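Many introductory courses stop at the sequence. We go one step further.
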Amino acid sequence: MSNPTSGRATSSPTARPVPVVGPPTKHQLALMIWIAVFPTLTVLNLTIGPWLKDSNPVLRTFVLATVAVPIVIYGLMPRLHRARGRLLARRVA
């Protein structure tokens, strides 16, 4: 039988309470998105841009967005949220 408290932080006399960091503000989120999107699009344009140079601009945008959005949403944004949480928790502690 599994322990119902497994995976949860337990309190002990020597453990510090972990500060809870709320969701990002609109401005923080905008900055995080920019930090994720700009380098991603730059790298994609440098790598697959030459193959798409003769294509229709709408098709080129569609291909770049189709590749960039999953990279940003599933790869970069979770890491940026964790980094923001650690940074703010360190400031509070």
